[in-house]
Structures are given as structure tokens and as C-alpha cells.
UniProtKB/TrEMBL annotation:
It comes from Mycobacteroides abscessus subsp. bolletii 1513. GO terms for cellular component: cytoplasm. It comes from the Bacteria. InterPro entries: AAA+_ATPase, AAA_16, P-loop_NTPase. This is ATPase associated with various cellular activities family protein. The keyword ATP-binding applies. Keywords: ATP-binding, Nucleotide-binding.
Length: 445
């Protein structure tokens, strides 16, 4: 399966990068994109297709602290400490073959001397360069100059489209992926191939992604394996405390309008998070809202918020949002859900109104959740007659049947299909045959 993940559908990008590598007017290409988007996979695929000597190095945080650290294995032992002499020795070793290709993975982590060496090779045209750079990360000036001065062609690598993502998963699995499962995979990965791979392999190991009658189906949430969580966690470890505080607020209520987030956090923290590509700011109708740049960032941040901190953060949001526009059902429901578990007193009237909103919007499980919270807050006698707390779940037998045909099975009158009891509904429809099915459809319609 590991080799199958290399089969990315990026023929357009492949052709463009390969042309840049063969263009004598430039010295190569630099691929820029988010972590896991497939920069290295594409770069190595291009170099494999070229009939020439290729030398790859991979930069790390550790090698960054060592002058010429990433090229150290190409420098012969010497007692010299002269940077000029060391650069000359490394250059001589690198260009010992005619017109070599130097591949630099994560070039944003190059130390200054290594970046200078790379710049010299490109400027003097003694070799071709293909480099990958993670977007949102600081890059050495010598590396930035390579594409600004047109020595390298810069290519922005976007995430896979939904069609490309599904095609990749189906190619890896060797069979079609169920539509709903494909939607979950797409929403969870947002087209990031590395995230997609971790999700598929983690879900298979957990037994939630299985093949049924030749079709792959995901049952339950997509599993986020420890490896992927570690990858995202490493990214968050380098975030400033004030920025992480803004991320924690957003993780409690996403999307959030930018003014609210800036009021609770700060303009500087929100700006820094956007520049680091942890969040994105976009127009949503007449509002400007903030979202995580990838859904998994939100999940990772939430896992790093304790119960007490979560209650306090939701309380801050409630205090700000209750003074904002509550004229829409979505705004009332959002505020009500935040208020259920926060350090602010329960607003029973809000919970009851939001429960009605949820029922009218045909979201009975949410309506029941809000209604029961209202009951717990002392609002038992103000629950709406249509509230699912009176017609679903454990209270189903008490619901009047006068609106249903006399022969309708009891399980249908209790709305199990609205409360997640799909296996029971399926059993009733199968046992009852076409007549029951037709009757149920007629009632629901």
C-alpha cells in the first residue's frame, strides 16, 4: 500500500516542473505548499524521470543549527574553520559530476551557509536545483532570492481536489469508496495527501474502514492515528502562547466572526495565526469569519484544552456573543450550545427557544439535547409541545398516535429515524415489506 500512495494525480504540475528542470534559461524549480501536500513526492517523481545524476538532502531543525550541516557528508575532513573554504569544498564535491541536480527537501530549514552555497550553485549555473519549501514558514534570504531573481521557477502546490482525493483513495484500496464515506474522508483531509493516507490507514487498523460487497465503507468517525496527531502537534508546539490562546478560542466555536475573535484574543494574535497559515480569514455573506486552515488543526487544539479551560473559554464566548445579533436560529443555537457547559449561569429561556429552533429545522437530536439542558436548568414546565424530549428516546411511548395511521408500527411513531435508531427503522421496513415502507414514506412526506 505504501507505494500506491505515490500515485498522485498531478500530471499538470508534473509537466510544468519537469519543463522547468529542463529549461536552460533557469536553474530549476521550487515547490511551495503546506506540510503533507505532496511537494517531496512530486519533486522526486520529476527527478526520477530525468536521465541525470540527482543528489538529495533533507533539512531538519537539527541540521539548521549546524553550519553547512545538511551538506556535511559532502565535505572532506578538514581542520579549517574558514566558512569560505568550507563552502568551496562542499561546492567542489557537489559539482564533481557534469550538470548535477541537487534536491533540497524543506529548504526553509537551511542554515545560512548552506543557503549561500545553494544560491551560488544556481547563480553560477553549475547545476540544477529542485527544492521544497513549506508555506507559512520563514525562509533564508538566499533561498527567497532564488525565485525572486528568477533563478528558480516557483510553483504553488495546492491540496488535491475532491475528485483527485477520492480517486487516490480508491486506487490505494483497489475498489470503489461509498459516497458518504468519501465525503467524510474529503472533509477530514481537505485534500492533503499525507492526512488522507493517515486517515485511511488509521481507520483500516481500527476496523472502521472495511470492504462490504466490493465497496469500501467507513462506519463511525475517521480515525486520527497517533502519527498524524504528532505531526500536527509538532506544528502547534512552535506557536506563540498568545497565538495558541486565539486558536483555543476558535476551537470552541468555528467559524467565528473576526471581530469576536479579536476582542477575546487580540488583533496581533489573529494576524500571527493567519500569517502562520493556521487559520484562514474569508467572507461569509456580509460577515468576515475565521476558520482553521485545516479541520484537523481544530481537533488537535481541542484535545489540548482541559475541562476547566474549556468551560472558561466557552464562558468568554457566551459573554461576548449574547450581546451580538440573536435574530437568527443559527446564532441562537450556537450560543445555547456554548452555554450548556460554561462558567456562566444557564439561560433557560435561550435554551428553550434554541430547542424550538432545532426542532423546526428538523434536527431533533439537537433539539432534545437543548431541551434536556433546559430541564436540568429548571425549565421543565416551559418545554415546547413539539420538543423531542417528549416524543423521542425514552419518552417515545407517551407520544400521541392520533396523527399516524392506526396500523403504523409503534417504532415509527417514536421517530427513531430522527434520533439515530437507523438499525431499528431498517428492521421494521424489511419485516413489514413494501406496504409498511410505502406507509412510512407517506407519513414522513
Amino acid at each position: 500500500m505504501a507505494r500506491s500512495w505515490q500515485l498522485l494525480d498531478r500530471q499538470t504540475e508534473f509537466g510544468a516542473v519537469r519543463s522547468a528542470m529542463a529549461d536552460d534559461s533557469t536553474c530549476g524549480a521550487v515547490l511551495v505548499g503546506a506540510a503533507g501536500v505532496g511537494k517531496t513526492t512530486l519533486a522526486r517523481a520529476v527527478t526520477r524521470s530525468l536521465d541525470t545524476d540527482v543528489r538529495w538532502v533533507a533539512c531538519t531543525e537539527s541540521s539548521r543549527s549546524i553550519p553547512l550541516g545538511v551538506f556535511a557528508h559532502w565535505i572532506q575532513a578538514s581542520g579549517s574553520r574558514d566558512p569560505t573554504a568550507l563552502i568551496a569544498a562542499a561546492r567542489e564535491s557537489i559539482v564533481s559530476t557534469a550538470n548535477p541536480i541537487i534536491g533540497i527537501d524543506d529548504a526553509h530549514l537551511l542554515d545560512d551557509l548552506s543557503a549561500t552555497l545553494l544560491h551560488q550553485i544556481a547563480v553560477d549555473h553549475v547545476g540544477h536545483v529542485v527544492a521544497t519549501v513549506r508555506s507559512g514558514e520563514p525562509v533564508p534570504d538566499a533561498v527567497t532570492a532564488l525565485w525572486k531573481d528568477n533563478y528558480l521557477q516557483r510553483f504553488e502546490l495546492d491540496p488535491l481536489t475532491q475528485r483527485q482525493s477520492i480517486a487516490l483513495v480508491e486506487k490505494v484500496l483497489g475498489g470503489p469508496l461509498e459516497g458518504l464515506s468519501a465525503d467524510v474522508m474529503w472533509r477530514s483531509s481537505r485534500g492533503n495527501p499525507l492526512f488522507l493516507r493517515h486517515l485511511v490507514e488509521g481507520s483500516m487498523q481500527a476496523g472502521s474502514l472495511t470492504e462490504v460487497n466490493g465497496v469500501w465503507q467507513l462506519r463511525g468517525d475517521a480515525v486520527v492515528p497517533s502519527g498524524l496527531d504528532t505531526l500536527i502537534g509538532d506544528r502547534l508546539e512552535h506557536v506563540d502562547d498568545t497565538v495558541f490562546s486565539a486558536l483555543k478560542v476558535l476551537s470552541m466555536c468555528e467559524p467565528l466572526d473576526i471581530d469576536t475573535l479579536c476582542e477575546i484574543a487580540s488583533d496581533e494574535a489573529v494576524d500571527a495565526a493567519e500569517i502562520a497559515d493556521l487559520i484562514r480569514v474569508e467572507r461569509d455573506g456580509v460577515r468576515t469569519v475565521v476558520r482553521f486552515s485545516h479541520p484537523m488543526f481544530g481537533e488537535a487544539v481541542r484535545r489540548r484544552v482541559g475541562t476547566a479551560s474549556g468551560r472558561r473559554l466557552r464562558g468568554k464566548l457566551v459573554r461576548v456573543l449574547r450581546d451580538r445579533d440573536l435574530g437568527t436560529a443559527s446564532n441562537r443555537i450556537r450560543l445555547a450550545r456554548l452555554s450548556i457547559d460554561c462558567d456562566e449561569p444557564v439561560d433557560v429561556d435561550l435554551l428553550v427557544t434554541a430547542a424550538k429552533d432545532a426542532v423546526y429545522l428538523s434536527n431533533l437530536p439537537l433539539g432534545e439535547e437543548l431541551a434536556r439542558a433546559a430541564v436540568d436548568g429548571g425549565g421543565a414546565y416551559r418545554l415546547p409541545p413539539c420538543c423531542p424530549a417528549r416524543c423521542c428516546g425514552r419518552d417515545a411511548p407517551n407520544r400521541p398516535r392520533k396523527y399516524w395511521p392506526p396500523s403504523t408500527p409503534t417504532i415509527l411513531t417514536s421517530y427513531p429515524w430522527c434520533c439515530g435508531a437507523f438499525p431499528d427503522l431498517h428492521r421494521i421496513l424489511v419485516d413489514g415489506g413494501e406496504r409498511t415502507c410505502a406507509r412510512a414514506v407517506g407519513v414522513v412526506a
